[in-house]
Amino acid sequence: MTAGTVVYLTVGVLARTVLKTRPTAARAVTRVSGTMMIAIGGFLLAERLAG
Fold it and tell me: Tell me: the pLDDT tens digits for 7-34?
């Protein structure tokens, strides 16, 4: 669990550093991640209602 925490923190810090210098990439990542979260939520809801 500690290794996972370290990995996620490292990825988060690196992503923030890279995206801070590239605002266009940051907007694209935000849109894609938002779309994926909505899609995953819809899938989970449909799965729950079907099962």
Answer: 989 998 988 888 889 999 889 988 999 9
